[in-house]
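Journal club prep — side note

Before the paper discussion, L.F. wants everyone to see what a predicted structure for a comparable chain looks like in token form. Sequence:
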Amino acid sequence: MKDRLRFRPHNRMKSGGQFSRAYRRGGRARGAIMQVVAFEHGEEHTRLGLSVGKRIWRSAVKRNRVRRVFREAFRLEYGALPRGCDLVLIPAAPALKPELLATRAELVKLANKAHSHFKKRSSKELESQ
């Protein structure tokens, strides 16, 4: 059980190409805590990417706190997230102080919503071809 909840390297988005593909073709959903971009990559596992900019978050301590809370929410809610997706999480507000419980609930809701937006968008693109 403990091994199942680990945040493994295959659950991370690593390359800039993965991020740009998600931004370019992914579905989006926005909430009070975060914005989620979802892109279905076709593999069995879901990957997490975090985009917390230095321009808005000057303090590294605050930037890293947001990253830690988002990463922990992803790790704990992994089973409830759509399979085979790249999920990019972006903080919704500059003065955000995220709480883990609220972040977990919003992550599941927004990830599923962004994934459904992606599905609709990709099905429309296939119909138009």
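L.F.'s comment for the group: The first helix runs from residue 16 to 25. Keep this in mind when we get to the figures.
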